[in-house]
Amino acid sequence: MEYNYENVSCKCFKQAAVADRVVEFKLPLADGASVAKVLSVVADGRAVKVDAADKSVSFSGRVNFRLVYLSNENVLQSLDYFADFDENISAQVASGDVVYGEAKVLETDLSGDEELKLCSVVRLTVYAAQNRECKCLTSVPSDCYVECEEIRLNSLIGSVVKDFSVTDEAFIGGDIEKILTTDSDVAIYQLKPTEGGVFVSGEMCAAVTYLIDDTIKCARFNVPFSEEVPFKGLNPDDGVTAKAEVKNVRIIIGGTEGDNNIEIEALIGVRINGYKNCELSVAVDVFMPNRELVAEKGSIEMTAFDKALFFDDKFTDSARISETRPAVREILAVTTASNTVAKVWSENSTVCVEGIVGATIIYKDENGFNSVKAELPYSVGFSSNMGSDAVLKAEGSVGDVSAKIKRDREIELSVKLCFAVEAYTEKTMTYIDSVTEGEEKPLNDSAISVYIASEGDTIWDVAKAFSASPDKILEQNEIDKKLVDGQKIVYFRSLV
After folding, report:
1. Of the ranges 52-61, 91-100, 235-244, which one carries the lowest mean pLDDT score?
2. In a 10 Å sphere around its CB, with 0-12 CB exposed, 13-18 middle and 19+ buried, how is residue 485 labelled?
3. Which of 402, 420, 301 is nearest to 361 (CA)?
4. Quick check: is 13 in a domain?
5. Of 361, 357, 359, which Cα lies nearest the Cα of 330?
């Protein structure tokens, strides 16, 4: 007799590790001694190199700091620094796994009196492409009864990284004295697989803070983009995820004397993962009416990508400054805007997201330039057909940002919140990896058989006890395959 097996394998990108790292940079004494008042600190993180070993990952990265301050001579200045770091992270990986990482700055501050120190909390996330393989029973001899379960498999086709540039300009008028700082973010609004490619569109948002006519101003850029990214082997029905980042920003002051403009050129990197979907029927139980069978079972944890969704919403809230500070007279710039997701879940056909909006607001009061760091909580929801059992991952970014004076010491902040949400299904797949035939057993040939179910019994337990087809038992009883404790099942045999 033949029992047929099939080797089942799938590959997926799995979040293998998350670790928070504090990255510090001590300012040179000459620079630190000249700082009288800090107005803005911007930092962004980069993964430089990520390598997998057995159960660990070596992660090399860099944090870029940009500092805007008033000097002891009451002159506006800006400085750029970078700090490299190395971290060894425990991870669910093996040597040779394909891995990549992300370094996202969660919080940045400047501390110290005589010696100033920049400090950022950086979240390091490691993703690994890992294989899942098993041998599953798929078909049995004709005199066996088999119960099968449909399994949805989701296998990684591969990853494609595409870099492209976007440009824009803002007409300023007047003569710009210096660029103080630049911060940027990128959001994806649409992601669609095509035949052999992926269409991706979104927006790069940047704030360029500059000095002109002895005051601070900010030029905001909202640059839409759309790209067709080639992806060999991808079909319109396959699944795709994408992550985008601003890799580099180049600022050029152009125009003519007395009539300057700011040109911005940003290099955007998009990483796209493609997933092939398929359905497989796997045997989960088997028996033979007249012979003992021993079925060895195995199990494997499967994570299947379902879909990627993109949402955005307008968020407005107010931040108050201390009563000990002078009243706000004029808003000058909003920098370091961020959208940090704290929690995401699905409930009643709604994707719910909670998090924190952060921004540094530079303003003018009776004493001159000043700034305040705002951190405002939010809770938003978006209509979706996701089930409540979906495993969701979300990343936040910001679009357009603005601020205005609401009262003397109250500033209203308006931010376009952007979200990329990925939905996954996690399931333990149980399968039969071997069947051994035993001794013959007598058939139950009673005209009438009665079975009283115990908790956890299924129709297959009844079929084995009755030596009968599960389908025929179901035909004679209006029952589900899963039984309840004390349920009575009766089976009548046709007697010749």
Report:
1. 91-100
2. exposed
3. 402
4. yes
5. 361
Strand order in the sheet with 35-53: 35-53, 56-71, 76-90
pLDDT at 89 over 70: yes
Q: Last residue of some domain: 107, 132, 157?
A: 132
Nearest to 182 by CA among 265, 82, 276: 265
Please give the helix or strand (H or E) that residue 473 lies within, else none.
Answer: helix 470-476
Find the domain containing 455 and state its range: 442-496
Q: Is residue 263 included in any domain, yes or no?
A: no
pTM over 0.90: no
Q: Please write the tens of the pLDDT for every residue from 342-361.
A: 999 998 889 999 999 999 99
Kindly write down the DSSP assignment for every residue of 31-54, as one continuous string: HHHTEEEEEEEEEEEEEEEEEEET
Domain holding 495: CATH number?
A: 3.10.350.10
Is 236 among the domain residues? no
pLDDT value of residue 426: 80
pLDDT at 397 over 90: yes
Supply the pLDDT for residue 430: 87
pLDDT reported for residue 1: 54
In the chain, pLDDT over 90 holds for what percent of residues?
Answer: 55
Q: Of 113, 132, 151, which residue sits at a domain end?
A: 132
**CA dist., res. 394 & res. 429, Å (int):** 26
pLDDT of residue 401: 94
Q: What residues are paired with 282 via a beta bridge?
A: 149
User: Can you read off the two tokens belonging to residue 330?
Assistant: 């004029």
Do 66 and 86 touch, CB atoms closer than 8 A? no
Buried b (16+ CB within 10 A) or exposed e, 121-144: bbbbbbbbbbebebebbbebeeeb
